[in-house]
């Protein structure tokens, strides 16, 4: 069977060349994750070089599976927000080891796969109020930006006010500020793969800073010793299969902790993937007048499988990337685009030493801030004129930041929503799922069981 007949290139008004260009463009738009994910999961105590290879290989395999199973031009990689949830909420916040965290990623992905196959996905999604869905996505965006600013030294600890502005004259902090401004300009100018090129330009500037001898005492690494570190970084697959040894710890945890860890991963996965795949299907012209998306079941299936692959190789949950729209905009219409994205991810494993050496927290700060801005934009759909709708949104975002925990932010949002709806006399309209979640959140918040 030819590529044309299998992927229906002619029927989709595309060609091998168009799919290749679309795949390369999507890869470049997504490739910032190769620098950001190792830095973020490194805070969880994981090997940064191991996370890099896990990211590259798991993303490559998942993209190829997505292309073959769904024939959608969608790239997959560890989700921004999922990696923050994994590191700062589950590992650091709840005190779960990274191995147990990977076991939770595997378990939640298997549950997600079963829900997808069973057709329960839509029913569960409909049980969660829209405003809370929007709040969680936006709150994670604010959380990512905060992590980036703090990691780069722009925001620092303060004994009097808890937080304060860092020393902007510090070269590492100054470099992060330059990176944010450059990336914002590129994005406003609609430069394809703006985040990637923002990272690249910032890394080059940082390298120049290092070579000309900036020696101001930085609290954040400006650039590593080059080329020494580039030479010393070796192929590291130490995280492969690490999730297996984490199951014992995961199931020995307190019951509510176990439920909250798995549920948090599953919950964010639900809205992240659905909120991405449906708009991408519309962009491709796969959605009919009744709102039915052709082949969306295969896309959901490919997305669900990717989380399992990520856990096996040693990274946080993979998900579909909205950056796939860049390749779609250039004419990518079939799974061949996704396959090319996967091939480029696999090839990127060869450049691990270079990427890990150049993409410090000062460099990756801009990616976290810009992605945070994009995620925050969904708040436009909140019912701002209704206090009962705004209050849970406000509490979700505020507590997510102040507690430094995505799960605790979700908990506060759900409890606020339930209390307000009961006060409005709408308690009978609350789904059983909301009642169960509120009970779990209350037990966890007050008793920590």
What is the average of the pLDDT values? 85
Could you name the ranges where pLDDT drops below 50 across 5 or more consecutive residues?
Answer: 225-232
Ends distance:
56 Å
Secondary-structure-based class equals: mainly alpha
Number of strands: 4
Number of helices: 21
Strand count, sense and barrel status of the largest sheet are:
2 strands, antiparallel
Cα-atom Rg, whole angstroms? 22 Å
Residue share in helix? 55-70%
Name the strands of the widest sheet in spatial order: 1-4
Q: What is the oligomer described by this structure?
A: single chain
Envelope shape: globular
What portion of residues belong to β-strands? under 5%
Order of helices and strands: HHHHEHHHHEEHHHHHHEHHHHHHH
Question: Any overview of this molecule?
Answer:
There is one protein chain. The chain has 449 residues and is mainly α. It has a two-stranded antiparallel ribbon. The protein has a two-stranded antiparallel ribbon with strand order 2-3. The chain has helices at 3-7, 16-30, 33-42, 48-69, 82-91, 98-118, 121-127, 130-151, 171-188, 194-211, 228-232, 247-252, 255-284, 296-313, 324-329, 335-348, 352-358, 361-376, 387-402, 406-423, 432-447; strands spanning 76-78, 155-158, 162-165, 318-320. Helices cover 67% and strands 3% of the residues. α3 runs parallel beside α5 (82-91) and α19 (387-402) runs antiparallel to α20. The protein is built from 21 helices and four strands. The chain is globular. Residues 225-232 have low confidence and may be disordered.
């Amino acid at each position: 069977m030819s590529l044309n007949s299998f992927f229906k290139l002619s029927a989709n008004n595309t060609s091998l060349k168009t799919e290749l260009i679309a795949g390369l463009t999507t890869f470049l738009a997504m490739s910032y994750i190769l620098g950001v994910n190792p830095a973020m999961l490194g805070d969880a105590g994981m090997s940064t070089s191991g996370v890099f290879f896990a990211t590259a290989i798991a993303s490559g395999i998942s993209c190829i599976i997505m292309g073959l199973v769904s024939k959608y031009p969608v790239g997959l990689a560890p989700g921004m927000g999922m990696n923050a949830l994994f590191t700062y909420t589950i590992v650091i916040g709840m005190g779960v080891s990274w191995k147990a965290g990977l076991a939770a990623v595997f378990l939640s992905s298997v549950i997600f796969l079963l829900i997808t196959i069973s057709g329960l996905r839509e029913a569960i999604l409909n049980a969660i109020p829209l405003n809370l869905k929007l709040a969680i996505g936006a709150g994670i965006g604010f959380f990512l930006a905060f992590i980036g600013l703090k990691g780069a030294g722009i925001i620092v600890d303060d004994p009097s006010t808890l937080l304060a502005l860092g020393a902007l004259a510090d070269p590492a902090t100054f470099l992060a500020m330059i990176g944010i401004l450059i990336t914002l300009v590129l994005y406003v100018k609609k430069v394809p793969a703006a985040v990637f090129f923002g990272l690249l330009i910032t890394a080059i500037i940082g390298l120049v800073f290092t070579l000309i001898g900036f020696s101001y005492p930085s609290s954040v690494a400006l650039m590593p010793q080059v080329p020494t570190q580039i030479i010393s970084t070796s192929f590291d697959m130490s995280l492969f299969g690490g999730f297996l040894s984490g199951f014992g710890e995961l199931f020995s945890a307190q019951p509510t902790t176990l439920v909250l860890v798995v549920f948090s991963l599953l919950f964010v996965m639900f809205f992240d993937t659905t909120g991405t795949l449906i708009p991408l299907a519309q962009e491709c012209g796969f959605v009919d007048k009744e709102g039915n998306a052709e082949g969306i079941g295969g896309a959901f299936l490919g997305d669900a499988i990717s989380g399992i692959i990520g856990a096996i190789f040693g990274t946080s949950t993979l998900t579909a990337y909205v950056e796939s729209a860049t390749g779609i905009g250039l004419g990518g219409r079939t799974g061949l685009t996704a396959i090319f994205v996967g091939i480029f991810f696999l090839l990127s494993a060869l450049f691990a030493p270079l990427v890990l050496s150049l993409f410090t927290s000062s460099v990756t700060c801009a990616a976290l801030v810009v992605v945070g801005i994009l995620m925050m934009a969904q708040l436009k759909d909140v019912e701002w004129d209704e206090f009962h709708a705004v209050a849970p949104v406000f509490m979700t975002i505020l507590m997510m930041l102040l507690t430094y925990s995505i799960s605790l932010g979700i908990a506060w949002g759900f409890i606020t929503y339930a209390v307000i709806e009961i006060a409005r006399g709408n308690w009978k309209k609350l789904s059983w799922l909301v009642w169960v979640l509120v009970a779990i959140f209350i037990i966890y918040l007050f008793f920590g069981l």
